[in-house]
Amino acid sequence: MMVNVLASVLGFQRDTISENTSQGVAVAETSGKTRELCGLEPLFPALSRLELLEFVRVLACFRWLGG
Q: Which domain of life is it from (predicted)?
């Protein structure tokens, strides 16, 4: 039961972070403050900007874990 509660809290946190990120990206794009994500945009043209942000975040976590 404790694992289910923890999973629910973490899922809520993930959703909140995702919403905040998408809102922040939208605000940045409307104000013209966009930038390339480590030069990855030309390499992955099919991915949206939000998907690229998630990809970079996952890579950073992977590197932090020693992968």
A: Bacteria
Q: Count up the domains in the chain and report the number.
A: 2
Q: Report the candidate in 44, 43, 52, 47 with the shortest Cα–Cα distance to residue 25.
A: 52
| Residues 50 and 27 placed together within one structural domain of the fold | no
Same domain, 28 and 44: no
The torsion angles phi and psi of 35, rounded to 5 degrees, stand at -150, 160
Distance CA 55, CA 40 (A): 10
Model confidence over 4-58: pLDDT tens digits?
888 888 889 988 988 888 888 888 778 776 665 556 666 667 677 778 778 778 8
Q: Token pair of 41, please?
A: 């945009």
Do 20 and 48 belong together in one domain?
Answer: no
